[in-house]
Amino acid sequence: MTYYYSKYSYYNKHSYSEKKYEWTAYTEADLLGDHNGKSIDCGDTFPMPGSATVCMSTYDNDGYLSGDSSWWSDDKATDSTGQKAYIDGGREGGQLYAEQYHVLKGSDGKYYYLIEIEVEGYDAPGKGDDYFTFYGKVPPAGVELEVVSTKNVWGCMIDYRCLGAGDKAPENTPPEFTNDPKYGKICIDENSTFVIDLNAKDDDGDTLTYEIVGGEDADKFEIDAETGELRFKDAPDYENPTDKGEDNVYEVKVKVSDGNGGEDTTKLKVCVEDVEEQTGKCIVIEAEDMCEWGFSKAWGCDASGGKLVKLNCAGGQGKLWTTFDGPSGTYDFKIYAQDENDGQSKLKIYINGEFKGYIKLDRDSDGSGSNHGTFSTFVLEDIEINKGDTIKIYADGDCNEYVRIDKIELCKDDKPLGAIGDTVWYDTDRDGVQDDGEAGVENVTVNLLNGAGVVIATQMTDVNGNYLFEELEAGDYKVEFELPDGNFVFTTQDAGSDDAVDSDADTTTGLTDTIALGEGETNLTVDAGLYDPNDHPEPTDDAAKTCADEEKTVDVLANDSDPNGDTLTITHVDGQAITEGGEVTTSAGTLVKLLGGMLVVDGEDAYEDLDIAEHAMEDISYTVSDGMGGSATANLEMTFCGDANTVESFVGYMPETVSYKVADGLRNDPYEDVGYDILITESDNGRLDGVEFTAAYCLDFNRSITTGADYDSAAELDGDMFVFNDDTASSVLLASQNGVNGAALDNVNEINWILNQDFESDGTGSVDGKFSGWEVQYAIWELTNNFPSDAALNATPSNGQVEDVDYIVSRAISEGYDFEAGVGDIIGLVITPDPVTAQNAQPFLVGVEFETYDCLC
C-alpha cells in the first residue's frame, strides 16, 4: 500500500503543493531467479516472494506516476514535475517513471498487474536493472506467476495510491558470539579433546550454524555445526605438540552464520597445559589444605598426618573448597568423615557449581565423636572432574555433630581390559577376502605375542574357525597363525579395503603387523585366510579343418583339464590378450574370435588364394587360465582347404562317372508336379555320393529313360558326367533338335540361365504363385524340342499353367541369350547313360551350387 504525506512548509525544498508517496517493491533480480533471462518478459515464470525488499518513495504534485513515452521524450519520465527517485530513503538517479506494466496469471487462477519502474541514470542492484511493484491486489507468497502480456505505460495512468508489494522484510540482524573468551585465549589440559562450547545469540531468532573457517591449526579441530562445541580431533600431548609453531598454542577461526547473510567470527588461541602424571591410582586432597568457611583445623590420632577439620560450632554449617589440579577424568569421589552416633549430618558435593550428590552421615559408626576418633569412608562413584574444576563440600551439622573430615581421595577405576580375535577361514577363490559361504577352519593353532615378541597365550580355533584372546591390557601385540597339516598356504595379506574381512597374516611367517590395542578395546578384525596351493591347468593340443571361405568354431576347452577342478577360460590367442566377445588377428592374418568360450576361426582373407584341392596349415596358440593364478598354453593345428577360384577348377573336381537313379513324378497316381529327381548312388571320386538333385531336367523329349515312382523302385543306371556348355552341348543335343526359337544347340546359355533362376523355389511371376517342376521341364523342352506345352498341359492340367511356361521361355530368350555361369552361380552338369540303350538314352541336366561344392575338405 502507498503512503503519502503533504508538504506545505515554506522552507521545504519541494514544491509547495507536492506530496510524498511511498510504497514497497522488488528489484528485478528478486524475481528473475536462475531460470529467466536478464529482464522480466512475456513467458517468464517466478514464485511470489515472501516479502518486499525495497522501499521506494517520491514527491509529486499530481498523484500519478507517469510513463516514459511522449512526442518529446523516450526512456525519460513524461511528467517534468516531481517524481524524484528515493530508494530506501536515499536519493538516487533522476526521476522515476513507469516503463511498462505486465499482466500476470497466478497458479491460484487470478490475474495481477506488475508495474515496472525505471530510475533515470540508476540501475537496481543484481541481475536486471529495474524495480517492480504491484498495482492493486498483491499475490500471496508462494503463488507461481507467469507473465502473459506486457503493455507500455502512456501519460499519467498509474495512481500512486494503488502501488505496493506488501510488507518489507525487516533488516537481518547478524548473530553474535556471546561466550568467546577475552582476547580469544583459552587453556585446556593435555590429553583431553574438549575445548569450548561456543554460544551465540541472534535477535531474529534464526537457526545458527557453526563452522571452522581458518586458523593455521584448523585441521586439528572439529566443531558440532548445530551446538558449536569445539573439540580437538585427537587429544593433544603437551610433550609432543603438533601445532604449527610447536609451542602448544593452537590457532583456529570459527564462524557462526544465520543463513540469511549474517555472520560473526572469532579467532581462538587454544593453549595446552602440562598435566603432572599421577603415579598412583588415587589423588589425595587433605581437608586441612582446602579453603574453608565455618570449619577449623584440629589434631587427631586417626587422621592422616594427624590433621583434620571440624565445624566451628556443633550442629552448625560450613564449606570447604579447592581447585582440582589433577588430570581430567572420571573418578570415584571418596570422603573420610567421622560419623557420630548422635545425629544425621549431611554433606553436599559440587563440582564447578554442579551438584553431584549427598553424603548422609547416618551410619552412627564412629562413636560419640572425638578429634581422636575413627573415620568412615563414603563414596560417590563415576564423577567427572577436569583440571581446574572447583570442588566444594557443604556441611550441614545435626544434633551437636562437628562433622569431622580427614581427607578426600579421588580414585580412577581400574583400567578396562580388551580382547583380540576373529577367524581363520578357507579362501576358496584365493582373493584374500572372506566372502559369504567361505567356511572357517577348525583346530588351527593361534599364538598371541606381546610387544617384545614373546608368546603369551595360545589357542586353537573352534569348529567355526574362531579364536579370542581376552582380558588384555592396552598395549602392542601380534598374532601368529600356524599352518595346519596338509598342503596349505596363507592367502594374500591385506587384499581388501575392509580390515574386518581381509587376511592379516604374512604369507611367509603367518605373523600379523603390530596391533595397538586401546584400553577396553575389543578388536575382532584379526583374520587369516588359507587355501591349497594351485596347480597349473593341463590343456591338450587340438586340430581342426575347414574351407578357407568358411568360419570354423572349435571348442578347444573340451579336452582341456585342471588338476584342481577349476573352471578354465581362454585369455590369449597367438600371444595376444583376448576376452569373451573379443577378436584378434594372428601373425598369419587369420581372424580369431572368442564366443561362448570357443574359438571361431576365419581364414577367408588370409587364405583367399588357395584353390580347390589346395591346403594350408597354421598353428594357432591359445592360453588358458584357471582364475587362481595358473595358466598354460596349447596349440590349435588349423588346416584350411582352398575353394575353387574358377568354373574350370570347380568342374575339374566334379566326378566323371556316376551311378544314379531317376524318379518320375508322372509315374505316381495322382501325378506329382515335381518332374524328375535324380539320386547319385556312387561317383568315381566320391564327391557326390548320396546327393539328390530335385531339379533334374531331360534335355531331349524324344529319348527314352528308365524311371521309377521312387528311388526304391527305380533301376540303378551308369553314366558320364560333365559340364553343360557350348563346348559339350553337341555331345548331348542332336543337330536335328530344334527349339521354339531355332536350333537347340544355340539355346545352351538360355537353358543354363533357367537353371540359375531356381524357379521351383521362387514363384515370382507365376500366375498361381508357384512354378512346378513340370513347368520348368516343359520350358526346357520348348528350347530343345519345340515341345507343344499348350497341348500337354491341356491334357494334364495338374502339371502346371501354360502362362507359367510361356513366362519362363520368354524371359530365357530375352535375358539368357548371353548367360555364362560363373563363380558363385549354379553350374549345369549333364548326366548321360553309359551304355546308351533303347531304354536308356536320355541326357539329364542337373544344377550344382558352386558355393556348396567349391571346396574339398
TrEMBL record:
It comes from the Bacteria. InterPro entries: Cadherin-like_dom (IPR002126), Cadherin-like_sf (IPR015919), Galactose-bd-like_sf (IPR008979), Ig-like_fold (IPR013783), SDr/BOS_complex (IPR051417), Sdr_B (IPR033764), Thioester_dom (IPR013552). Pfam families: Big_9, Cadherin, SdrD_B, TED. GO terms for molecular function: calcium ion binding. GO terms for cellular component: extracellular region; membrane. Residues 193-283 form the Cadherin domain. This is Cadherin domain-containing protein.
